[in-house]
Specification:
Elements (H helix, E strand, L loop, with lengths): L1 H17 L5 E4 L2 H4 L15 H24 L5 E4 L5 E8 L6 E10 L5 H15 L3 H11 L7 H24 L7 H19 L6 H8 L3 H12 L3 H19 L4 H7 L5 H12 L3 H20 L3
Antiparallel strand pairs: 1-4, 2-3, 3-4
Helix pairs in contact: 1-6, 3-5, 11-12
Length: about 300
């Protein structure tokens, strides 16, 4: 397990490093990684405001697009567009040189001005089909068009080492006996399923009773397992995920505080503001203003450069 543990540590550290400059996500590895997939759950969900908005409305469509992206990646890395009009770079994770693709790495959050007509056409069609507020979605997509799109050749140099590490992990896991019934492995499997549920459904009113029934374990066992694994209660963990999304909306959109509260799973905007203020020592509005002023100061400094 020593080598495998090092691979997990190095790949997660490298993912964290890449996300300082890009929005990098990993998809499709659940079948190969099984109970070990929880290491990469923070990088399994796109957190751009536009993507969060669309997932909240139609997560099933996003899952379908992921499967199509994995299939298309068999032909090699590419730059494509999803059914909602968002563009991303896709890199295959292969087990061998025959392009036995087991998953993909996505670098997302781009809206190419050169293909804006196609992008907005797809968004309009999706909005009509799913009864989405077109204007709200379009404003979010417009924000993404201001991002500089990197050259795929340069991006490949950054992403390829991660592809190799994730492939090596899959090979190491395949050598192990994953059918063991030890108490440790059973607990790992239960925890992995619970965390997957919470990480995908945190905008919904999740309770311990709901998780207990869904995963066939007692509330007391579930509470102890969650606290020992995360250091948080279920409510604290859910609020942390919601606050992560709230910051993305505050910084990158003009949505009202009430709209952001609703989008992140709060039915009461006042309670949302209370939770936010408790976490960040300022109100959502003050946080947004501070970030806008910080950006403005940064632009002024850039203008003074020779």
């Amino acid at each position: 397990m020593g080598y495998l543990t090092d691979l997990f540590t190095d790949s997660v550290s490298y993912l964290r490093f890449l996300n300082e400059s890009y929005n990098v996500h990993v998809h499709g590895l659940d079948a190969c990684y099984g109970k070990y997939m929880y290491h990469f759950m923070p990088y399994n969900v796109h957190v751009e405001p536009f993507c969060l908005y669309m997932k909240n409305i139609s997560y099933s469509n996003c899952l379908k697009m992921q499967k199509l992206a994995i299939n298309h990646a068999k032909e090699g890395p590419y730059y494509g567009m999803c059914c909602f009009g968002m563009s991303e770079f896709v890199f295959p994770i292969s087990l061998d040189e025959k392009q036995n693709v087991i998953g993909i790495i996505c670098v997302s959050g781009y809206s190419n001005p050169e293909t804006a007509d196609i992008s907005f056409m797809r968004l309009h069609e999706a909005a009509k089909r799913l009864q989405i507020n077109t204007e709200t979605a379009k404003k979010m997509l417009d924000v993404q068009s201001k991002k500089t799109i990197p050259a795929i050749d340069r991006l490949r140099i950054m992403i390829q080492p991660l592809c190799y590490m994730l492939s090596a992990i899959a090979k190491e896991i395949s050598k192990m006996d994953l059918n063991t019934n030890s108490e440790f492995d059973i607990q790992e499997a239960v925890w992995n399923r619970i965390k997957l549920t919470v990480d995908f459904e945190y905008r919904q009113p999740i309770t311990m009773a709901y998780l207990s029934k869904k995963h066939h374990c007692s509330i007391s066992y579930l509470s102890h397992l969650f606290k020992s694994r995360t250091g948080f209660s279920l409510r604290q963990y859910i609020n942390a995920l919601r606050m992560r999304d709230a910051i993305a909306y505050l910084v990158n959109t003009n949505m009202s505080i009430s709209e952001i509260a609703y989008m992140t799973g709060f039915t009461d905007s006042n309670y949302f503001s209370t939770v936010f203020s408790r976490e960040f020592d300022c109100s959502p509005s003050a946080y947004r203003q501070a970030k806008q002023e910080s950006r403005g100061a940064g632009k002024k400094r850039e203008n003074l450069l020779p």
